[in-house]
Design brief:
alpha+beta; 7-stranded antiparallel sheet; 6 helices; disordered N terminus
Length: 311
């Protein structure tokens, strides 16, 4: 019975109870002046009450609920106090770059597609929303993740995504050694062998490796991982097949890596590998805490899954 009326609401955007009768009478007069009639004033008042807007809840991001992240990269807004952009994109047609922000707390795909109309777009910078300034960048055009294909935003699960094809990003993030770190990410791999997640290039990069090529690679000399979660379930870390099963089945994962650095000479972090050992697939979010998050782990994973519908 709702009438879909175009009504002018009182100050503040809300219809208070005393105004229902006034509005109903005004509407009846307008209808009657046009030659129509309103048969039931009580029904009309009830409709107006149902049209009374409810003030939307203020947006609360993941980092508002779980603060203290060392670095946070996402194609959605993670913090309601963050006023920066999401990414910087280079369009292939003329190599011009432009920063792309958020609309309604998600990536501004309209601006992105307008900027990259008819061409491909590649991410040169993925901004850190933690407030720590640890932006992830890639200067080499051949290694930049793709975000637009022929003018259309690349999607995974209906959400904008970085497409990784021999791609990588690097940050200036330096984490404290000998403390527990929590890394949460949304990842989908297209690799079927030589699964690569995070990897290292030199001893100056603070990074993580699951497997290098087809050989099982120990990570104990660089990072000790206690748990890997695939779709919310802890995975075994024993053999090459365990690594493969955790990340190599072409499914999207919400992965939680828990461990501690045991070297003190790393002053940067690399994502998705390095030349010759880069992951191929999709990524939409990476958030890192260099502090204990065991009490928050379930809540963080639930927040991520609620948005990306991973499992």
């Amino acid at each position: 019975m709702l009438l879909g009326l175009g009504l002018n609401l009182n100050k503040g955007g809300f219809v208070s109870s005393p105004y229902y009768s006034v509005l109903a009478s005004a509407f009846r007069s307008r209808v009657q002046s046009d030659g129509g009639q309103v048969g039931n004033m009580s029904c009309l008042k009830s409709d107006l009450k149902e049209l009374n807007p409810t003030k939307p809840s203020a947006f609360t991001g993941l980092l508002n609920d779980y603060s203290g992240a060392a670095a946070a990269y996402s194609l959605r807004l993670l913090d309601n106090t963050y006023t920066g952009d999401a990414i910087v994109v280079r369009r292939a047609s003329d190599n011009t770059t432009q920063a792309i922000g958020f609309v309604n707390n998600e990536l501004d795909t309209a601006s992105l597609e307008s900027f990259c109309s008819g061409t491909d777009g590649f991410v040169t910078t993925w901004y850190d929303q933690s407030g720590n300034g640890n932006d992830a960048t890639q200067a080499s055009a051949s290694a930049q993740p793709k975000i637009v294909s022929s003018g259309s935003t690349i999607l995974d699960g209906g959400k904008p995504s970085l497409q990784l094809t021999e791609s990588s990003l690097e940050t200036n993030l330096s984490l404290v050694t000998d403390v527990t770190h929590y890394l949460f990410s949304v990842l989908k791999t297209n690799d079927t062998a030589g699964i690569q997640y995070w990897s290292y290039d030199t001893n100056t990069k603070w990074v993580f490796i699951l497997q290098q090529g087809n050989n099982a690679t120990s990570i104990s000399d660089r990072f000790s991982i206690n748990s890997i979660y695939k779709n919310g379930t802890a995975q075994s870390l024993g053999t090459r097949n365990d690594w493969y099963n955790a990340f190599g089945d072409n499914n999207k994962h919400l992965s939680t890596l828990i461990g501690s650095a045991n070297q003190n000479d790393w002053n940067s972090l690399g994502f998705f590998g390095y030349t010759g050992f880069r992951l191929n697939g999709f990524s939409q979010e990476i958030i890192i805490w260099d502090s204990e998050q065991s009490a928050n782990q379930s809540g963080i994973e639930t927040n991520i899954n609620d948005f990306y519908s991973i499992y």
